Amino acid sequence: MSAIDSLPPLREVIAKHQLSARKSLGQNFLLDLNLTAKIARQAGDLSGCDVLEIGPGPGGLTRGLLAEGARRVLAVEKDARCLPALQEIADAYPGRFGVINGDALEIDPLAHLTPPIRIAANLPYNVGTELLVRWLTPKDWPPFWQSLTLMFQREVAERIVAQPGSKAYGRLAILSQWRADARIVLSLPPGAFTPPPKVSSAVVHLDALPAPRFEADAAVLNRVVAAAFNQRRKMLRASLKGISPEIEDLLHAAGIPQTERAEQVSLEAFCALARHVAAAAQR
């Protein structure tokens, strides 16, 4: 294995600092630095960007991002055991790497970042989806980030890029594809991690669109989509009856058959329905 920097191999780092992965923190470490550099390259040209990383652990992806030329990397790490190992990376890349010790769900890192900003992370499995939803649903759009390059369980990755008619298609696909271009760029087997998880993983890359793909009020769209997929086996006239007393007329106006089920409805059609729901509420 060729070295990507002057720091020791990750197995040595983990042994030195006794960093056994903790299931309670959703940790699975990637130890192949060539692989972490490959993931970093999926994030695009980092030379003029600050990069936000969540859950760096011993710093494998961190080192890949820095070696690939990131202007600066800011990592948020909940596990204080990892801080000494991450400090060694900071010492090797003076002025280009900083760490916040805390919970990514509770910290606002924007004060420590300078645009343009990209996010790249081997996300802890137990918070990955919640973080993605937060990044996709800010109050204002475009968001603070240009792109997201994120590791998920393969099942979650497939839900993000799913198309209508598939079992994986649901709220996560709608949220992701309404405001971003999303694609799976890399697949990883369980054996790539220490300890190996029970499932395969995949890296998803999302580029933020300058404006949503179709016009719709974000809150209304989210309410409609949530109601539709919460009872995805029901016909829409039944699953959406709590949205509006005139839902059958609104479905007709949006060009959606009343007997359709949520997984058959395109993003464009959901946005059309959200517009009609919003208009009806204002009458």
State the distance separating the first and last CA atoms. Answer: 66 Å
Low-confidence stretches: none
Percent helix, as a range, is 25-40%
Q: For the record, what CATH class of the largest domain applies?
A: Alpha Beta
The assigned CATH architecture of the largest domain is 3-Layer(aba) Sandwich
CATH superfamily of the largest domain: Vaccinia Virus protein VP39
DSSP strand tally: 9
Gross morphology: elongated
State the domain count: 2
What is the N-to-C succession of helices and strands? HEHEHEHEEHEHHEEEHHHH
CATH topology call of the largest domain: Rossmann fold
**How does the helix and strand content classify structurally?**
alpha/beta
Describe the overall structure.
It is a single chain. The chain has helices spanning 10-17, 33-41, 60-67, 83-92, 128-136, 154-161, 171-179, 218-230, 236-239, 247-253, 267-282; strands at 29-30, 50-54, 72-77, 97-101, 117-122, 147-153, 180-188, 193-194, 201-208. With 283 residues, it is of the alpha/beta class. The protein folds into two domains: 10-208, Rossmann fold (3-Layer(aba) Sandwich), CATH 3.40.50.150; 218-282, Helicase, Ruva Protein, domain 3. β3 (72-77), α4 (83-92) and β4 form a beta-alpha-beta unit. α2 crosses α3, α8 crosses α11 (267-282) and α10 (247-253) crosses α11 (267-282). The protein is elongated and about 65 Å long. The termini are far apart.
